[in-house]
Design a protein that fits this description.
Elements (H helix, E strand, L loop, with lengths): L1 H10 L4 E5 L15 E6 L4 E9 L3 E4 H4 L7 H8 L3 E4 L5 E5 L5 E5 L2 H16 L8 E5 L10 H7 L8 E5 L5 H14 L5 E9 L9 H4 L4 E10 L2 H6 L7 E9 L6 E2 L5 E5 L6 E5 L6 E2 L1 H23 L8 E4 L4 H11 L6 E2 L2 H4 L6 H11 L8 E8 L3 E8 L2
Helix pairs in contact: 1-6, 4-5, 9-10
Length: about 400
């Protein structure tokens, strides 16, 4: 259902969607088929008008990790750019201030982080929950296996039956894929205002005994409000009506083995007639990652997909005010910026505070940049996400 809704949205507007796969004319079994998918397009009549985020209250610093592994703050910082990360803990709570001014404790889960991020985004956008008719939650680690988007929509006050809400799974590319998907619904007239969340808790799935991977990840949530532009703006050709200037998205399942979190069922015998039936108790293994291959993939594909999106937008690198990448590793950001010919001064990053928060990383960083005044209305932001799937994509945003 998640994939079907996204494809319907993409096919409903002026974009190109391409599939590449070997064709077996003789219907003989093939040993391996690597399928690559791509979608790209130009200006979309939507505007990003609100951003919000929320991170867990528990902080684990690099110094804290020194007590867990044979590592050091310097070793982690120089290789990743990370100084600390925020994590969801078992039965964790956070203090919130209610509308009556009273302070209360509430459970701290991925869902509650998403709720707070969504409320912050709506407040900045000047929109009420009743204005929202589409909610997409990009996540690979929901609290509810069946999806968190509907319950988040309900929790922020969206009336039942007044909007469609669904989860989208594209790992660290999820938020970028989510805003492009939502923009299709807005552009083709199916929706007026969309709330797109990126929320992940990958610290639940890392191997905490593996020094090389557990230092990388943190948890968090971010949200963006997108609104359909006034039709007249688009018809006059004014760029003021276009908040997405161009985009390109790719995936290639041939690389899934380099970054994954695989289903791991445990046998469970049930006493059906005869010898019984062995079914499975479901669970997942720890996340697996080939760091060298993922680094090579990111530094190779991200500059290319950004250039694709810029070409779709009809603008040059020099016209970009900010570069905002998925916050995975500072070395990846430095390499991508260098290959694009952009100075690091244009790169938006808060990786050092949060670590790799997967689908949450782009909205977490953008929220801080907007609220600090660094990103202003009319600024052009080149965004790129990349991660498991393998998946990667870019979008050129015009803020406000």
């Amino acid at each position: 259902m998640r994939f079907l809704l996204a494809v319907i949205a993409l096919l409903g507007s002026t974009n190109s969607v391409t599939a590449f796969a070997p064709i077996n004319h003789h219907h003989q079994p093939t040993q391996q088929i690597n399928t690559a998918l791509a979608a790209k397009g130009g200006k979309l009549s939507v505007r990003p008008i609100g951003i919000g985020s929320c991170a867990p209250s528990t902080v684990i610093t690099n110094a804290d990790m020194e007590a867990v592994h044979d590592t050091s703050d310097e070793w982690i910082r120089t290789r990743t750019g990370i100084e600390q990360r925020r994590v969801l803990v078992h039965e964790g709570t956070r203090k919130i201030i209610g509308t009556d001014g009273e302070e209360t404790e509430t459970p701290e889960t991925l869902r509650t982080l998403g709720i707070e991020a969504a409320k912050n985004a709506l407040e900045m956008a000047g929109k009420s929950p009743s204005d929202i008719d589409l909610v997409i939650c990009a996540t690979s680690s929901p609290d509810d296996l069946f999806g968190d988007a509907p319950s988040i929509a309900s929790a922020i006050g969206i009336e039942a039956g007044k909007c469609v809400a669904f989860d989208l799974t594209a790992a660290c590319s999820g938020f970028l894929f989510g805003i492009v998907t939502a923009s299709q619904f807005l552009t083709n007239g199916a929706s007026q205002n969309a709330l797109v969340l990126g929320a992940d808790a990958l610290t639940r799935w890392v191997d905490w005994d593996d020094r090389n991977s557990c230092i990388l990840f943190g948890d968090g949530a971010g949200a963006m409000v997108l609104t359909r532009s006034d039709e007249n703006e688009g018809l006059t050709g004014s760029e003021d009506g276009f908040g997405i200037l161009g985009y390109a998205m790719h995936s290639n399942g041939g690389g899934y083995k380099d970054l994954n979190c695989i289903y791991k069922g445990e046998p469970k015998k049930i006493s059906t007639p005869g010898e019984g039936t062995v079914v499975e108790d479901g669970s997942y293994d720890s996340m697996g990652m080939n760091g060298r291959k993922v680094y090579s993939f990111a530094t190779r594909e991200v500059p290319t997909v950004l250039e694709e999106a810029l070409e779709q937008a009809g603008i040059s690198v020099d016209e970009v005010d900010h570069l905002l990448l998925h916050q995975a590793n500072i070395r990846i950001m430095e390499t991508v910026a260098s290959r694009l010919g952009m100075p690091m001064e244009k790169v938006i990053t808060n990786l050092y505070k949060y670590g790799n928060t997967s689908a949450a990383s782009i909205p977490l960083a953008l929220d801080e940049a907007v609220r600090s005044g660094r990103v202003k209305k009319g600024d052009v932001i080149a965004c790129a996400g990349f991660g498991a799937g393998l998946s990667w994509g870019a979008a050129i945003l015009k803020w406000g």
